[in-house]
Amino acid sequence: MQGLLLLVFAKMMHLPFIRNSQTTYTRTGIFGYWGNKGAVSVRFSFYGHMVCFLNCHLAAHMHNALQRVDEFEHILETQDFDIFDTPHVLDHKVVFWFGDLNFRIEDHGLHFVRSSINGGRLNLLWSKDQLIMMKKKEPFLQEFEEGPLNFKPTYKFDRKADTYDTSGKKRKPAWTDRILWRIKPKSLPSGEEEEEEGDDEKASTFTDNGQDEYPILVTQNTYTSVMSYGVSDHKPVIGNFTLELRKCFDTQLVHVTPVGEWSADQNALLTYTILEDFMSSTWDWIGLYKVGFKSASDYETFVWVRENELPEVNEVIEKSVDKNEIPLLSEEYVLGYYSTNLNSIVGLSDNFQILESKRAAVEGLVPKDINGINN
């Protein structure tokens, strides 16, 4: 949405265990018709743990603190995902909420705010930070955690400078850009009464469906800003977190492997085997990716897994890849099985080398030394 972007990067080793990814958005600008304000989000299952990331841009100006809270709550209520057990943002086990929340510092005058910043007495400003103040009043905000604001307010700066706004408006500095997180509270099985005070250990081991669940621990390692960045009138805010979790599964859904040597001089073979029953589809495909690829659609070529019938579990299927679709030069590649229903890669082969084709020199793709001889 107009100026709102959310990118998620993952190491390749994690890809087969990132499943059911979905995205959505909410417009809040001009009564919901304009996307200059609002939120974009992505959710997925990470080793069986439901995680959601949400980037937002809320209403501006000092006097709109209540409107920002209303927009925050509206986004939580209206964002829907087509997942039966986690249809809403707050259904996820972990939520990271971040962006230009636009909360300001109330009461204190410009001179006091700037002198507190210059003197390193940031703690004098915390009690008048609108988000901190609103968290004391709004129960749903109290579920979100935030690290200490031990970095200078990130708004508003002169562009390409480290000085706060010197324009005629002289906007008061504020921590507009924030990173919050929430771990889903645990609850008792449906129909059970809460335990007596002092006997709540049992409640902490159950989820809403009454089954034991693996815990997840979120630790914030750093929460800071980058003052050297000068393109915007905001300074970027960075949060570094460690997630400790017990994997609910650690086996890929599909085993994919290349057969023999691959080069563009002959058709190549691959095999795949579905290891677990899942919602496979004839629209699933296996892509050939250069190691370091950026997205599931960043393939060199692909083959459909099946034209008609889907294979049985543990059935080994062989597919052929046309030699004209195979890269001519030697590089490292990987095969990935993409599930249309799960919207993710659910099987990756080991890295393998594609050999340089004899056609590469003919087509002038091989670099030459100073004597004009092919290397």
UniProtKB/TrEMBL annotation:
The keyword Oxidoreductase does not apply. It comes from the Eukaryota. InterPro entries: Endo/exonu/phosph_ase_sf (IPR036691), IP5 (IPR046985), IPPc (IPR000300), SKICH (IPR041611). Residues 1-249 form the Inositol polyphosphate-related phosphatase domain. Residues 191-200 have a biased composition (Acidic residues). The keyword Signal applies. This is Inositol polyphosphate-related phosphatase domain-containing protein.
